[in-house]
C-alpha cells in the first residue's frame, strides 16, 4: 500500500474517532490524555444554536494540546472523621504506606488531611491550626486563663486570642490594655464595668453568645455572675498578634509598685488607710457577685454614649441553603471599630462557600462540629487542615478558602477580623458577574453551567440541588 494511501486512511479514521466522542465523556477522555505531555486532547468549539443556547461540537481537525493539562477528576474526600473507626494511616489510594514506628493515634484521628493530604495540596502555608488545649494554662483561685499569640502560631500576626474562665463571683481585676479588647461569651454570663477617658461609666451583664468591646486604654473589670452555679467562660480577641495577657496593666500591680505616701497624696488621704492593699497583683480572685441590674455610681459626665456590650445572641441569622450567618461589626455594634465577627452554622454535607477576605486576616474559632479548610496561597501552594471544637484557625489576607462540614452534626464557628466592617469576596458570585465568554475561555465550562452560577453570594451552600435563585 502506498504511503499516500496509508496517510489518507489514518486521517479518516482519526477524524471519525474524534467526532464520535460524546461531550459528556470529554473530561474523562482528556484526563487520560493529559497524563502524558505529548497527547493531543479533543478540541471543543461552541456554536450558537437556534434556541440561543450554545451547543458543543468536536472539531474533525487535529487540535493543539491545551495550554496546561486538565485538572484531575480524582476525589479527595477526608478519609475518616470522629464517627468512624478507621485506623489512621498515611495512605491515599496507591500513594503512601502505613506507619511502622510510634504513632500518636488520637492526633492523627483528628487530622486526616494532614496525615493523608488531598492530592490537590502542594507546598505549605505555615501552621494554620492551634488547639487551645495545647496552650499552657494559668490557674488562679477563682478561674484560669490560656492564650494564643505568635509564639504558638507564627502565622497569626494580626490577632491574638485568650480563653478565660471565672467561677461565679470571681473577678478579673480592674485593668486596661494598650490594644482594644473584644469578647464573645462562651458560657454563662459576665458582668463588665468600665469608665472612659471622659469620666463616663458603664455597667452591663453580658450573656452567652453576646459581645463586649473596650477601646485601647479604657479601664474595665470582668466578673462571673451567679446566673449559673458555674460562672462564666469567654473568648477574648486582641488586634495584635504579639499581644501577651501577662503584659496587662493591673490596678493592684500598679499600686503595689508605687510608694504608699504617693498613693495617699494622690487620693488626698492618710497612708494608714492603705495598709491592707495587696502587695502584688491579684489578676483573678474570688469575689461576691453583684446583681445583674447593678447600676454604676452617678457620674457628672453621664454614661458612655455607645454601649460597650452588644446582644449578639438576639440577632436573627440569615438563612442560606447550607446554614446560617449573622454578622456584628461597627455598622451594628458601633463602638467595635477594630473587630468584626461572623457567626456561622453549616449543616452536614454543606460548606462555607469558596471565598477570600480582601483586606484583613481571619482568626477563626470552632464552637461545635468538625470541619476541614483548604488555604490557597497562590503560586500553586495549597494546604488542608482539620478542626474540632476549641481549635483556632488562621487565614492570611487574600488567601482563598472554604470551610466544609466533615461531621454528622451542625458545624458552628466564628470568623473574626481586625477591621471595622466585615468583607468577603465570593468565588461563585465573581464568576457569575463576569462576562460568560471570558469565564468559558478560562475554564472550558458549558453555557448551561455558567448560566447556573449564583449572582448573589451563596455564603453557606448546601451542595447540588440546593441552589437559591439569583
Characterization of the model:
- The chain is of the alpha+beta class and 470 residues long.
- It contains nine helices and 30 strands.
- The strands form six sheets. Strands 5-26-23-28-21-20-19 form a seven-stranded antiparallel beta sheet, with no helix packed on it. A seven-stranded antiparallel beta sheet has the order 6-7-8-15-10-13-18, with no helix packed on it. Strands 9, 11, 12, 14, 16 and 17 form a six-stranded antiparallel beta sheet that branches.
- A hairpin with a 5-residue loop joins strand 1 (44-48) and strand 2.
- It is elongated.
- The relative contact order is 0.12.
Describe this structure in a few short sentences.
With 470 residues, the protein is an alpha+beta fold. The chain has a seven-stranded antiparallel β-sheet, with no helix packed on it. A seven-stranded antiparallel β-sheet has the order 6-7-8-15-10-13-18, with no helix packed on it. The relative contact order is 0.12.
